[in-house]
Amino acid sequence: MKAVVYRQNGPSSVLEVCERPQPRVAHDEVLVRLARAGVNPTDWKGRLLSPPAFDEVTPGEDGAGTVVEVGPGVGSHQVGDRVWVMLAQHERPYGTAAELVAIPERRAVPLPDAASFDLGASLGIPAVTAHCALTSGRVSELGPDALRDQWVLVAGGAGAVGNAAIQLARWAGATVIATVSSPAKGALATAAGAHHVLDYREPDTTAEIAALAPSGIDLVVEVAPEVNRDLDLQVIANGGTIAVYGTEGGPTVSIPVRDAWSKNCRYRFLLVYELEERDLRAAADAINAAIADQAFDVGEHHGLPLRHFDLEQTADAHDAVEAGVVGKVLIDLDSAPRSS
């Protein structure tokens, strides 16, 4: 099979396309022939910054494809099942930038019949992170009406996590405000389903949010906690939650105790790699339920443009994500139809 590997840290030029033997499936594992692989910021950051824990690494946590072999002890999957894949390369040498990947069966989630492989490969880290953020406040389970009468503020509404958070929050009944940095990104957040879209660069953004939600924001999905600290603490409702999943704008956050104290609010910091299995399963179930309700999709019309690359262009795909391309970057591993 064809696979992309790297053996040392460095720029995208360390990535090499080569031939590798077909993976062998172990106990409780399935072998998936991938149609698409998703590229996330953690892929290029790991390749650039984290010394490889194995002799060689195939990057890629997310993907979608078809089960072609099941190992001993597998009871949840059969050959021919369509699946979306999450955390494929976490603590393992080989991820989804390859034609085939062997993974624990719990990392292969049934892909609803109506969902494209493009959608499946766009889930994983972004959608699971969004689900965890949305269940960090006053609800522990996400479903239709779970967030009814709640206000959710999504910072960075045009990013992959922001897009997923908007779609899932709206499906769950919340009123969603998204902040963005340009009219073009605002159009994407609107397409994703945000009820209100504001430019965070404008000086009156805090006042606009307060006017829309005079009782305060129940939940903030935050990617830039230091940059947005003052705004978040001013608009958060009494007892609200600020769910932090990123470090844009700086790796630290300084929280004024009295300001947070006066709101009885809490910060929740999220890292999908450290979630417990029950949280991952709850996220997968809710995401699939939203897909089944036709409330979650990808593509320009759903606020997340797709950027396709061939496997031989994996270095270019990493560079695009590192450069902050707007939309979801996918690696095509077969000729499955592309979403519009």
UniProtKB/TrEMBL annotation:
GO CC list: cytosol
Gene Ontology MF terms: mRNA 3'-UTR binding; NADPH binding; quinone reductase (NADPH) activity
Gene3D superfamilies in the cross-refs: Medium-chain alcohol dehydrogenases, catalytic domain (3.90.180.10), NAD(P)-binding Rossmann-like Domain (3.40.50.720)
SMART domains: PKS_ER
UniProt KW NADP keyword: yes
The Enoyl reductase (ER) domain, residue ranges: 10-331
Keyword tags: NADP
Name of this protein: NADPH:quinone reductase
The organism of origin for this protein: Nocardioides antri
